[in-house]
């Protein structure tokens, strides 16, 4: 099958097309095959490719096949999902530790990672969602804020942050979104009560306090701004970074806990259904062929992308 491998740690140029044998279900009892139509390019893929996460990977080293998010067609029956079902999900790539990701024509997956894709949702939209939307949902769970709380979401113009804004507003929270000034109207339409444009930390703090003079109950830090934003959290509040790379040092009984996205088929099904009903917006920035993975990484690395870049397989 066609794959794209990370041939060595480095820049996007280390991504090279290759051929590998199709995975054999006999090698992994309980797993099922999915023929992929689309794979999302996540920020985490970029970090793994660069070598930034090498220490997390133990024995695993290049060459390996990257990729968390996928959407495609089921080739083996799974509980409640007959052969031919359109499915999406994500491979918990680091935890799996096999280096057999979704930049490939076929993957072997645990049925518990899979959710059916509603007819109204195309494969590219479906592949833009799993890791990011589940991480946003699970970050909100981790915060465990009572309904009506005031929450700051950073990186609200990005993929994870944009989901968090929408899901927090749906949960009845008052959301302050830190994002690009150009996205202010859209973020309000998605449920943000207030939008603070990105800028120097002191300007951001002033902007947030303008909407929440009492300070906020929680911060979901999808932009990994970290310590400079701690002053906006109430004493005893909660601060959840989207990665352990930039954990603030806790103060004033603020609970600091990072979120790690984990597969959750039932939750993903609900999220995909919301997308199908037009109640949750997902945004695909670019669609490129699998063989253009290096270009996809270049574009993702350059930032300022309005959404997820997806590889068509
Ligand atoms: N814990 C997990 O399991 C998990 C799962 C998924 C993702 N993540 C992590 O979550 C983070 C967000 O992922 P994503 O896919 O949403 O990435 P993304 O789409 O690139 O979003 C990040 C957003 O933050 C913005 N940003 C960067 N620095 C900023 C600053 N100083 N002030 C304000 N905004 C800033 C970026 O703007 P520009 O593009 O203009 O720079 C971008 O809009 C990444 O670090 C990713 O690795 C973690």
TrEMBL record:
MF GO annotations: NADPH binding; oxidoreductase activity, acting on NAD(P)H
Pfam annotation, one family: ADH_zinc_N_2
Sequence ranges assigned to domain Enoyl reductase (ER) in this UniProt record: 10-311
Matches recorded under SMART domains: PKS_ER
Keywords from the named record: NADP, Oxidoreductase
UniProt xrefs under InterPro entries: ADH-like_N, ER, GroES-like_sf, NAD(P)-bd_dom_sf
PANTHER family noted in UniProt: QUINONE OXIDOREDUCTASE PIG3-RELATED
Protein name: Zinc-binding alcohol dehydrogenase
Organism of derivation: Streptomyces filamentosus (Streptomyces roseosporus)
């Amino acid at each position: 099958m066609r794959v794209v491998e990370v041939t060595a740690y480095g820049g996007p140029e280390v991504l090279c097309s290759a051929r590998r044998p199709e995975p054999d279900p006999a090698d992994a009892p309980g797993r099922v095959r999915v023929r992929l139509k689309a794979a999302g390019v996540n920020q985490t893929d970029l970090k793994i490719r660069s070598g930034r996460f090498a220490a997390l990977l133990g024995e695993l080293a290049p060459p390996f096949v990257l990729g968390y998010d996928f959407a495609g067609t089921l080739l083996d029956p799974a509980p409640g999902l007959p052969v031919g079902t359109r499915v999406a999900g994500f491979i918990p790539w680091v935890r799996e530790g096999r280096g057999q990701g979704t930049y490939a024509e076929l993957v072997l997956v645990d049925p518990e990672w899979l959710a059916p894709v509603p007819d109204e949702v195309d494969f590219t939209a479906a592949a833009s969602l799993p890791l990011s939307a589940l991480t946003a949902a699970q970050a909100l769970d981790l915060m465990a804020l009572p309904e009506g709380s005031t929450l700051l979401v950073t990186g609200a113009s990005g993929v994870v942050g944009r989901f968090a804004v929408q899901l927090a507003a749906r949960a009845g929270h008052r959301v302050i979104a830190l994002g690009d000034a150009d996205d202010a109207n859209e973020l309000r339409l998605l449920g943000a009560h207030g939008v603070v444009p990105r800028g120097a930390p002191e300007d951001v703090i002033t902007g947030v306090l303008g909407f929440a003079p009492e300070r906020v109950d929680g911060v979901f830090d999808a932009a990994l701004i970290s310590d400079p934003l701690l002053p906006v959290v109430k004493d005893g509040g909660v601060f959840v970074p989207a990665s352990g790379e930039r954990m603030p040092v806790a103060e004033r009984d603020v609970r600091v806990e990072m979120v790690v996205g984990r597969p959750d088929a039932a939750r993903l099904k609900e999220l995909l259904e919301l997308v199908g009903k037009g109640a949750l917006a997902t945004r695909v920035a670019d669609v490129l062929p699998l063989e253009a993975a290096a270009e996809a990484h270049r574009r993702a690395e350059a930032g300022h992308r309005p959404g997820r870049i997806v590889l068509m397989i």
